[in-house]
Design goal:
The chain has 250 residues and is of the alpha/beta class. The protein has a single domain, classed as Rossmann fold. It is built from 10 helices and 8 strands. Strands 1, 2, 3, 4, 5, 6, 7 and 8 form an 8-stranded mixed beta sheet that branches. The protein is globular. The N terminus is likely disordered. It comes from Methylobacterium oryzae.
Length: 250
């Protein structure tokens, strides 16, 4: 927890987004990613592979936009910068790994935005001018901060808030897919809790009841290995990867 707090304090971000809790969430994710580096490695490699495949299948390569760029662990930034004239990284909080990567490459720009607001705001100008848009392990995360904000005020979140935010993001991707050449989506869909015998002891729908079409690539992400949340249990997420969201929606 001390590392997560330190990362949150040191991470630059607008005060409005800091108050909403996005910087704290970014710090928690950053700390967990470092603790679980070995367990996350196969998932991150698969995610980067899906994004690279989508990039290589895009004919026009002027501009790529990554929504939910975060730590860049799951983003093949080198491949994107090699293939495209420019790359925009969009997130509510850009941790230091992303800021340093952007400083090293003149093609890369950071865009700070509350993506949970859907297809709105000035950052969408960068999306509609893009050839490739990637939503990178973002969809299931969108409801977390808004729901936590309600609970922090001692109020129960609206029962359909999570579903609304997930549905709004998918609707935004659908709208963008009609304007740009290619949209790539990577998202976790279901969480299962396993004990050391491999028995599923609990499961949770990470998309709040919103369904997505079958994916061309699926895999398991051991997001919390044994010892992270308890000695006898671990959390595994099922992940879908779509190199062409428009085709998957047909």
């Amino acid at each position: 927890m001390l590392l997560a707090w330190a990362l949150s304090v040191l991470n630059p971000a607008p005060l409005s987004l800091r108050r909403l809790g996005y910087v704290r969430q970014s710090g928690l994710l950053h700390a967990r990613s470092r603790r679980c580096r070995a367990a996350w490695a196969p998932h991150l490699a698969r995610a980067r592979g899906v994004i690279t495949a989508a990039a290589e299948s895009t004919r026009q390569r002027r501009h790529a936009v990554v929504l939910g760029s975060g730590l860049l662990d799951d983003v093949p930034l080198g491949d994107l910068a090699r293939l495209f004239d420019r790359v925009s990284l969009v997130d509510a909080a850009h941790p230091w790994p992303a800021r340093l990567a952007a400083r090293r490459n003149a093609k890369v720009a950071l865009v700070t935005a509350d993506i949970s607001a859907g297809l709105s705001g000035s950052w969408t100008d960068r999306c509609t001018s893009a050839d490739l848009i990637v939503s990178a392990n973002l969809l299931s995360q969108l409801p977390l901060v808004p729901i936590d904000a309600h609970e922090a005020r001692g109020r129960e979140a609206p029962p359909r808030l999570g579903a609304h935010l997930v549905d709004a993001h998918l609707a935004a991707l659908d709208a963008l897919a009609r304007r740009v050449e290619r949209v790539c989506l990577i998202t976790d869909t279901v969480q299962r809790e396993e004990d050391r015998t491999g028995r599923t002891t609990d499961s949770r729908d990470l998309l709040f009841g919103i369904t997505v079409p079958p994916a061309e690539a699926t895999w398991d992400w051991e997001i919390a290995p044994f010892g992270e949340i308890g000695r006898s249990h671990r959390l595994i997420h099922r992940v879908n990867g779509y190199t062409d969201w428009k085709a998957a929606r047909r």
